[in-house]
Every structure is written in structure tokens, then in C-alpha cells.
Design a protein that fits this description.
single chain; mainly alpha; 16 helices; elongated
Length: about 400
Amino acid sequence: MSKRIFELAVPKGNVSPLCEICGNKATTKCDICRVTHYCTQDHKLIDSISFHKKVCKKLADIRSEHSIPFSEADRIADAKALLQSKQDVLKLAETVSKKWLLERKAMNAYPSAMIAWNMSREMRSEDSSEVIYPTCLVSEMFLRLGDISAAEQYMVQASWISQKYDVLPHSILSKLYRIRGLVFMALKNWEQARTAFAEFAYAVASEYGIADVRLGIPYGLLGLSLLKFDNIDGAMANFHKMADKWLDNLLSQYEVTIMRAATETEMAADEEIQELEFQFMEAKIVFELMYEMVRNLEMNDVTDLINFKILCFQVLAEMREGRPQAVIVYKEEALATATRTKQDKAVPEKRIPVLMKILGGDYLYLWERKHNRPRTIATKYLERIKAINV
């Protein structure tokens, strides 16, 4: 491997504890738990900000020496309590590292990703299927830090573990294929990236069904890889699938007035809410990549149409996150794009009225008249809304 990874837990009796962050010889430790060590105050601060405060007391309990219980019942109870503490730390470490990665703060994800990886191997075995996801997280963390070689090493390790099983849950496979695609994309190995993203889409569809919004991200990533083969039609088809799913999802939220990001407490209490929040955060990243790549193509009705959808998503996303100034910027760009295309199917038809309410139907109509662009997408939408209202 390109990096030597040290265990985060300090073995009992070790006279040279290692840094929680980098694995170098430690010179200081947490003043509260007294069992977590660091080589510098900077690394101590990084861990404190990113993860340690959340698990300080639990790590003290896990890593400290315990007196031997007198009875068998007490030994069983203590073992169960210790296992539960480790499971709690592992679950929290996975969640926190994923959140930091989606917020594009990879260095902050380092401590939690590494502790998830070490804790999962300690609780199971190094080749357990349950180690695959933490290994994927470490791979992504190195990828975001720009160490593609280390990211590839961990991705290969996760893939190697998966080969030991004849059958794996689609939930695990989807995480594995996702990181495979991302690493291959960073390596510019577009053939394998395309295959991995296709497998990613299949795994997600098998787990959640083809109607689920979680299938949007695999579609978007697959479309990005197809563009590298000049398969514009295939790429656009996948981009539209992703855009339609997320526009439908956000417009549904708008209709029932829940256009806001979930709080950390809500995410911790409900795994479904947490998963969808993470999906939204990643969707924003993928939409940005799509928009950047589509803008490099020739401007025409085809590219204008997907750009219009992407910009509508951005409008709704900024509304959801409470940034009115950004909403205005994206709305103006979406309206300008709408007047350039004569395509008719920019969003799911049942959501057209509420989308036009958000963008402003009257403004679109006046814009068209000013620029002498009749029968564009905006005009057709306004006619549909009028017909529905009648």
C-alpha cells in the first residue's frame, strides 16, 4: 500500500502510543478520555473538530482496562455493553465521515473514516463483508484528499473482500460499485468506470426499485462516463432520468411545504431521513458535474433542455437550503435557458404547474414577447396550466 495505516486503538502496555490521525509517534493525548493520542496539537484539534468530541466518553470506556467480573452473568453483561459501545461508535463514525465527505471536507473525514475501518475489522474480521463499506469510505476519503493511489488500494481491497462471497446484499454492492466508479473516473479509466456505474445503477434499482429517487445519482454518474465515449444520446438519456427524479422529489416537497434540510437530530433519529439527506447532498455534486460537462458541448435544443432541468433543480435546492440570493441567480439563468429551447418535456407533466409557479409564468411570457420567441417551452407550459385550471 502507498500508506501505512496504524490501528487507532492503543494496545495495552504499548509504551509508544501512535497518533490517531497519522500514525506517527504520539506526544500528547486527549485530556478527557486519556486513551486517544496525537503527535501534534494540530492533529489533536483536527480530531476534536471532526469527530472525537462525539465519542470521547465511549472510547474511554472501550479502550480502558476493565476489572474482571466475578460472575458469568456479569461477564456476559459487560461483553454485551462493550460490543454495543463499539457498534455505536462504528455507526456514528460511518455517518460522520460520509457527512464530511459530502460537505467536501475530506481532512475532517479522516479520523472518523479510519476509526470506522479499524473498528469494523476489530469487531468482525478483516475479510468480513461488513468491512466493505468502511473500506469504501477510507478509499473515498483518500480520493477527496487527492491521493488516488491510496484510494485505489483501498478500493481494490474492498473489491477483493467481495470476491469471497457468492452473494452480497445489494445495499453493500451499491456502495462498492459506486466507489469503484469514482476511483476509475479519477484514474480516467472510463471503460471500467462506465461498467461500475452501470452495476451501481442495477444494485440500487434492485434494492429500492426503479421509481426511487436514489436511482438518480447512478443515472447521473453513468451519464458522465458515457460522455467520455461521445455517446451523447446515452448520456443525455441518463441525465434526464436523474433530473426528472430529483425535480419530482423536490417539487413534491415544495407542494407539502417541507422545503428544508433535515436537522442533525432528525437525521440521527431516522435512518431513512439521513439517507435521503445524504442523497440530496450528493445529487448537488453530481448535478454540478453534469452542468459543467454539458456546457462544454455545443449549445442546442438538446443541451438547453438538460441545462434547464439542472437549473430548475438548483433553484429548488437553494430554496430548500434557505439562500434567496442564490435562488434569484439560478432562476434568471433557468428562464434565459427556457426561452432558447422549443422542446416540450422539460419536467414531469404533473409538476409543471408548481414549477411554473416557482419560476414565474408571467415573467416567462413577457420575456418571450420581448425577445420575439413564440411557441417556446414557456408558452407551451403556460397553455397547459391554463387548460388545467379550466
